[in-house]
Every structure is written in structure tokens, then in C-alpha cells.
Amino acid sequence: MSQQALLVMDLQNSIVPRYAASAEVIAPFQGAIEAARTHHIPVIYVRVGFMEGYPEVHPRNKMFGRLAQSGISAGDEAIQIHESVKPQPGEPVITKVRVSTFAGSSLEQILRAKSIDTLILSGISTSGVVLSTLREAADKDFAITVLSDACLDIDPEVHHVLMDKVFPRQADVMTVEQWAGSLA
Questions:
Q1: Where do the structural domains in the chain lie, given as residue ranges?
Q2: 4-183 — its CATH code?
Q3: Which of 9, 19, 31, 89 could bridge across to 123 with cysteines, CB 3.0–4.6 Å?
Q4: φ, ψ of residue 103 in degrees (nearest 5)
């Protein structure tokens, strides 16, 4: 029998307001978290953050090089998990330093220590953390499910192309309701 974990990726204070203008947009994430907790599936939170002075960021990195100029550090409120999906005590909050959840984080060690072989992916953004994590997880031989309505992207067309054409090559794609129903 597989051991699953739900990854809630990049739902942090600096990111959620850019994508989720209303509570109904966050509802699928909350539903996935509730289903996981009800079925004793570990919920693992992931955020992006850096040490003071950004020693992890190379100036050539187009995405994070600009962030280094912003002054956001690992202790700032901006990188904390958004209140709408707040972790419970004992749920890991992993800090990564690149787009993929595996990059510069302890995620793989935590997954291996808990014998987790199946990842349920949710996050912001579909074309960022979800895509990068899916690709790396597939290369590491994890089974993967992507929760289509618990992923957001600034570009709806890109979201749909990834969900309909790209992700199904390496993952099962389903809604939160479909996934939760499969747990019963």
C-alpha cells in the first residue's frame, strides 16, 4: 500500500494575495488539507525563502536575482504560510531556495524517513513550483497526483495546457473532490 503526503507549496503571505483575490479560490486548498488530515495523510508545507544577504542566489538567476534586491529574508512575515491554510503543530514547513520543492530543502529526507512514495501536489504556481516539483519527483520515482483545482497560475491558458497535456504524462490529475473521494 502506498504512503501519501500532501504538499502545499508556496502558499505564503507574499504570494497568495497575487493569485487568490477571494476565499473561494483558497477553498480547494483547504479542502485538500482537511481531507489529508481526516485520512491521516501527512501535510507538508513548502515555502521559498533565503538567508540574510541571499548567499544562495546567483546574480544570473533571472527569477531569484530580482528577489535578492527586495530584502525579503527567511524570518520575514512575507514568507510565512498564509493564515488561510495555517499548518497545525507537527506539520513540517520546509524552506526551499529555488522553484522545485526539492531544491535546497530537506523534503526528500523527510519523505524517505516516513516511507512516503506518493506525492499529492497543490500549490502556486502551476507553471512554477508545481511543474518543477512534478518533474523532479517523477525523476525520483515518486507516484504523483496533481490536484487541478488546488493549483493556481497567473495565466489560465498555461494552467490548462499543463493540466490537460503535460502533467498526465507523469501524474494523475484530478480535482480535490475526486482525490478525497478516492480516499474513502
A1: 4-183
A2: 3.40.50.850
A3: 9
A4: -70, 115
Beta strands in the chain (DSSP E): 4-9, 43-48, 93-96, 118-124, 143-152, 172-174
| Cβ–Cβ < 8 Å for 183, 39 | yes
Closest residue by Cα to residue 80 from 17, 153, 146, 129: 17
Backbone dihedral angles phi then psi of residue 173, each to the nearest 5 degrees: -115, 125
Half-sphere exposure of 68 (CA within 13 A, CB side): 16
At residue 175, what are phi and psi to the nearest 5 degrees?
-80, 165
Q: What are 16-63's pLDDT values in tens digits?
A: 888 766 778 899 999 999 999 999 999 999 998 776 777 677 677 666
pLDDT of residue 97: 84
Amino acid in position 123: G
CA distances (Å), origin 8, targets 54, 61, 120, 121, 148: 24, 24, 9, 7, 13
Of 140, 86, 89, the residue nearest 116 (C-alpha): 140
Strands (E), 13-169: 43-48, 93-96, 118-124, 143-152
